[in-house]
Amino acid sequence: MKRLEGKIALVTGAGRGIGAAIALKLAEEGATVIVNYSHSETAAAKTAEEAIKRGGQAETFGCDVSDMSAVDAMIKGIIKKHGRLDILVNNAGITRDNLMMRMSEQEFDDVIRTNLKGAFCCIKSVSRYMLKQRSGRIINISSVVGLHGNAGQANYAASKAGIIGLTKAAAKELASRGITVNAIAPGFIQTDMTAALPEEVKEKMLSDIPLGFLGETEDIAGTALFLTLDDARYITGQVISVDGGMSI
Active-site residues: which are they? Predict the structure, then answer.
Protein backbone atom coordinates (compact mmCIF):
# COMPACT_ATOMS: atom_id res chain seq x y z
CA MET A 1 0.00 0.00 0.00
CA LYS A 2 1.26 3.47 -0.86
CA ARG A 3 2.15 5.55 2.15
CA LEU A 4 -0.22 8.45 1.43
CA GLU A 5 -3.17 6.43 0.16
CA GLY A 6 -6.40 8.24 1.02
CA LYS A 7 -4.65 11.50 1.98
CA ILE A 8 -5.71 14.84 0.51
CA ALA A 9 -2.90 17.34 -0.13
CA LEU A 10 -2.89 20.97 -1.24
CA VAL A 11 0.34 22.32 -2.75
CA THR A 12 0.35 26.03 -3.56
CA GLY A 13 2.27 27.37 -6.54
CA ALA A 14 2.62 23.85 -7.91
CA GLY A 15 2.68 24.55 -11.62
CA ARG A 16 6.45 24.21 -11.89
CA GLY A 17 9.73 23.99 -10.02
CA ILE A 18 9.78 22.90 -6.40
CA GLY A 19 5.99 23.00 -6.04
CA ALA A 20 5.47 20.70 -9.00
CA ALA A 21 8.13 18.27 -7.75
CA ILE A 22 6.46 18.09 -4.33
CA ALA A 23 3.01 17.56 -5.86
CA LEU A 24 4.35 14.71 -8.01
CA LYS A 25 6.18 13.09 -5.10
CA LEU A 26 3.02 13.09 -2.96
CA ALA A 27 0.99 11.72 -5.86
CA GLU A 28 3.47 8.87 -6.33
CA GLU A 29 2.71 7.83 -2.77
CA GLY A 30 -1.02 7.74 -3.49
CA ALA A 31 -2.19 11.17 -2.33
CA THR A 32 -4.94 13.12 -4.03
CA VAL A 33 -3.15 16.38 -4.84
CA ILE A 34 -4.77 19.77 -5.40
CA VAL A 35 -2.39 21.71 -7.63
CA ASN A 36 -2.85 25.38 -6.81
CA TYR A 37 -1.88 28.12 -9.24
CA SER A 38 -2.38 31.85 -9.56
CA HIS A 39 -1.68 32.61 -13.23
CA SER A 40 -0.08 29.53 -14.82
CA GLU A 41 -3.16 27.39 -15.44
CA THR A 42 -1.51 25.48 -18.30
CA ALA A 43 1.52 24.58 -16.19
CA ALA A 44 -0.70 23.48 -13.30
CA ALA A 45 -2.72 21.26 -15.63
CA LYS A 46 0.51 19.60 -16.82
CA THR A 47 1.52 18.93 -13.23
CA ALA A 48 -1.86 17.39 -12.48
CA GLU A 49 -1.71 15.26 -15.62
CA GLU A 50 1.74 13.96 -14.71
CA ALA A 51 0.62 13.31 -11.10
CA ILE A 52 -2.15 11.05 -12.38
CA LYS A 53 0.31 9.22 -14.63
CA ARG A 54 2.43 8.53 -11.57
CA GLY A 55 -0.39 6.77 -9.77
CA GLY A 56 -2.06 9.49 -7.75
CA GLN A 57 -5.15 11.59 -8.25
CA ALA A 58 -4.92 15.30 -8.98
CA GLU A 59 -6.92 18.38 -9.81
CA THR A 60 -6.13 22.06 -10.25
CA PHE A 61 -7.47 25.07 -8.38
CA GLY A 62 -6.75 28.67 -9.33
CA CYS A 63 -6.47 31.01 -6.37
CA ASP A 64 -4.42 34.03 -5.30
CA VAL A 65 -3.15 32.83 -1.92
CA SER A 66 -2.74 36.39 -0.65
CA ASP A 67 -6.52 36.91 -0.91
CA MET A 68 -8.06 35.61 2.33
CA SER A 69 -11.59 35.29 0.97
CA ALA A 70 -10.34 33.43 -2.11
CA VAL A 71 -8.31 31.05 0.05
CA ASP A 72 -11.32 30.39 2.28
CA ALA A 73 -13.39 29.57 -0.79
CA MET A 74 -10.68 27.22 -2.09
CA ILE A 75 -10.36 25.36 1.21
CA LYS A 76 -14.14 25.09 1.62
CA GLY A 77 -14.38 23.70 -1.89
CA ILE A 78 -11.73 21.06 -1.15
CA ILE A 79 -13.41 20.04 2.10
CA LYS A 80 -16.85 19.89 0.44
CA LYS A 81 -15.55 17.61 -2.32
CA HIS A 82 -13.12 15.41 -0.39
CA GLY A 83 -14.35 15.64 3.19
CA ARG A 84 -10.91 16.42 4.65
CA LEU A 85 -7.51 18.00 4.03
CA ASP A 86 -4.48 16.24 5.46
CA ILE A 87 -1.47 18.04 4.00
CA LEU A 88 -0.79 21.69 3.19
CA VAL A 89 2.42 22.71 1.44
CA ASN A 90 2.90 26.48 1.28
CA ASN A 91 5.20 26.85 -1.70
CA ALA A 92 3.75 29.79 -3.68
CA GLY A 93 6.29 32.57 -4.00
CA ILE A 94 7.61 35.33 -6.22
CA THR A 95 10.77 37.42 -6.48
CA ARG A 96 11.20 41.11 -7.25
CA ASP A 97 14.96 41.47 -6.77
CA ASN A 98 16.57 44.86 -6.40
CA LEU A 99 18.98 46.67 -4.12
CA MET A 100 17.13 48.27 -1.20
CA MET A 101 18.07 51.79 -2.28
CA ARG A 102 16.37 51.09 -5.63
CA MET A 103 13.59 48.78 -4.46
CA SER A 104 10.12 50.27 -4.85
CA GLU A 105 7.49 50.01 -2.16
CA GLN A 106 5.42 47.98 -4.62
CA GLU A 107 8.26 45.47 -5.13
CA PHE A 108 8.56 45.02 -1.39
CA ASP A 109 4.83 44.73 -0.78
CA ASP A 110 4.21 42.29 -3.63
CA VAL A 111 6.77 39.79 -2.34
CA ILE A 112 5.65 40.03 1.28
CA ARG A 113 2.01 39.69 0.25
CA THR A 114 2.46 36.55 -1.84
CA ASN A 115 5.22 34.76 0.05
CA LEU A 116 4.40 35.54 3.67
CA LYS A 117 0.77 36.66 3.79
CA GLY A 118 -0.10 33.85 1.37
CA ALA A 119 1.29 31.24 3.78
CA PHE A 120 -0.57 32.88 6.67
CA CYS A 121 -3.88 32.88 4.79
CA CYS A 122 -3.58 29.21 3.91
CA ILE A 123 -2.58 28.14 7.43
CA LYS A 124 -5.38 30.21 8.98
CA SER A 125 -8.01 28.75 6.67
CA VAL A 126 -6.79 25.13 6.82
CA SER A 127 -6.23 25.06 10.56
CA ARG A 128 -9.91 25.18 11.51
CA TYR A 129 -10.51 21.93 9.61
CA MET A 130 -7.33 20.23 10.76
CA LEU A 131 -8.18 21.11 14.35
CA LYS A 132 -11.51 19.29 13.96
CA GLN A 133 -9.70 16.32 12.40
CA ARG A 134 -7.11 16.41 15.20
CA SER A 135 -4.45 15.75 12.58
CA GLY A 136 -2.57 17.45 9.78
CA ARG A 137 0.80 18.20 8.22
CA ILE A 138 1.76 21.75 7.26
CA ILE A 139 5.02 22.35 5.39
CA ASN A 140 6.22 25.85 4.57
CA ILE A 141 8.89 26.46 1.94
CA SER A 142 11.34 29.05 3.26
CA SER A 143 14.88 29.58 1.88
CA VAL A 144 18.51 29.69 2.92
CA VAL A 145 18.14 33.40 2.10
CA GLY A 146 15.67 33.65 4.99
CA LEU A 147 18.38 32.36 7.32
CA HIS A 148 21.36 34.36 6.07
CA GLY A 149 20.06 37.19 3.90
CA ASN A 150 21.21 38.07 0.40
CA ALA A 151 22.15 41.34 -1.27
CA GLY A 152 19.47 42.49 -3.67
CA GLN A 153 16.78 40.37 -2.05
CA ALA A 154 15.73 42.29 1.06
CA ASN A 155 12.04 41.70 0.30
CA TYR A 156 12.50 37.99 -0.47
CA ALA A 157 14.77 37.41 2.52
CA ALA A 158 12.31 39.18 4.83
CA SER A 159 9.42 37.09 3.51
CA LYS A 160 11.31 33.82 3.93
CA ALA A 161 12.57 34.77 7.40
CA GLY A 162 8.98 35.63 8.25
CA ILE A 163 7.90 32.17 7.17
CA ILE A 164 10.29 30.70 9.73
CA GLY A 165 8.69 32.75 12.52
CA LEU A 166 5.23 31.87 11.23
CA THR A 167 6.17 28.18 11.22
CA LYS A 168 7.30 28.21 14.84
CA ALA A 169 4.28 30.17 16.06
CA ALA A 170 1.83 27.93 14.19
CA ALA A 171 3.60 24.80 15.46
CA LYS A 172 3.06 25.93 19.05
CA GLU A 173 -0.58 26.85 18.46
CA LEU A 174 -1.57 23.64 16.66
CA ALA A 175 0.56 20.94 18.31
CA SER A 176 -2.00 19.96 20.95
CA ARG A 177 -4.35 18.71 18.19
CA GLY A 178 -1.80 16.50 16.48
CA ILE A 179 -0.89 18.98 13.74
CA THR A 180 2.78 19.42 12.85
CA VAL A 181 4.17 22.54 11.18
CA ASN A 182 7.67 22.58 9.72
CA ALA A 183 9.69 24.58 7.22
CA ILE A 184 12.17 23.58 4.54
CA ALA A 185 14.92 26.04 3.62
CA PRO A 186 16.24 25.15 0.16
CA GLY A 187 19.66 26.34 -0.96
CA PHE A 188 20.55 26.76 -4.63
CA ILE A 189 18.32 24.38 -6.59
CA GLN A 190 18.48 23.65 -10.32
CA THR A 191 15.48 25.38 -11.86
CA ASP A 192 14.77 27.39 -15.01
CA MET A 193 15.90 30.48 -13.11
CA THR A 194 19.32 29.12 -12.10
CA ALA A 195 19.84 27.61 -15.57
CA ALA A 196 19.70 31.11 -17.07
CA LEU A 197 22.38 32.53 -14.78
CA PRO A 198 25.81 33.47 -16.21
CA GLU A 199 28.55 30.89 -15.71
CA GLU A 200 30.56 33.15 -13.38
CA VAL A 201 27.53 33.49 -11.10
CA LYS A 202 27.05 29.71 -11.07
CA GLU A 203 30.72 29.22 -10.19
CA LYS A 204 30.41 31.63 -7.27
CA MET A 205 27.31 29.77 -6.07
CA LEU A 206 29.09 26.43 -6.25
CA SER A 207 32.05 27.77 -4.28
CA ASP A 208 29.68 28.42 -1.36
CA ILE A 209 28.32 24.85 -1.37
CA PRO A 210 30.48 22.31 0.52
CA LEU A 211 29.00 19.39 -1.45
CA GLY A 212 30.04 21.15 -4.66
CA PHE A 213 26.87 20.84 -6.73
CA LEU A 214 23.42 22.41 -7.05
CA GLY A 215 20.48 20.60 -5.55
CA GLU A 216 17.52 19.36 -7.56
CA THR A 217 13.82 19.88 -6.97
CA GLU A 218 13.62 16.17 -6.07
CA ASP A 219 15.82 16.85 -3.04
CA ILE A 220 13.23 19.26 -1.67
CA ALA A 221 10.33 16.99 -2.64
CA GLY A 222 11.86 14.05 -0.79
CA THR A 223 12.22 16.09 2.38
CA ALA A 224 8.64 17.34 2.08
CA LEU A 225 7.39 13.78 1.64
CA PHE A 226 9.21 12.66 4.78
CA LEU A 227 7.57 15.43 6.81
CA THR A 228 4.10 14.21 5.75
CA LEU A 229 4.70 10.65 6.97
CA ASP A 230 4.14 9.05 10.36
CA ASP A 231 7.93 8.70 10.56
CA ALA A 232 8.01 12.48 11.18
CA ARG A 233 5.17 12.59 13.72
CA TYR A 234 7.46 13.87 16.49
CA ILE A 235 8.99 16.70 14.44
CA THR A 236 7.36 20.12 14.60
CA GLY A 237 8.45 23.75 14.56
CA GLN A 238 11.69 22.88 12.79
CA VAL A 239 13.54 24.43 9.86
CA ILE A 240 15.31 21.82 7.72
CA SER A 241 18.03 23.24 5.47
CA VAL A 242 18.40 21.33 2.21
CA ASP A 243 21.34 23.26 0.84
CA GLY A 244 24.38 21.05 0.29
CA GLY A 245 25.94 22.41 3.48
CA MET A 246 25.72 26.13 2.68
CA SER A 247 24.42 26.97 6.14
CA ILE A 248 27.13 25.10 8.05
Answer: 156
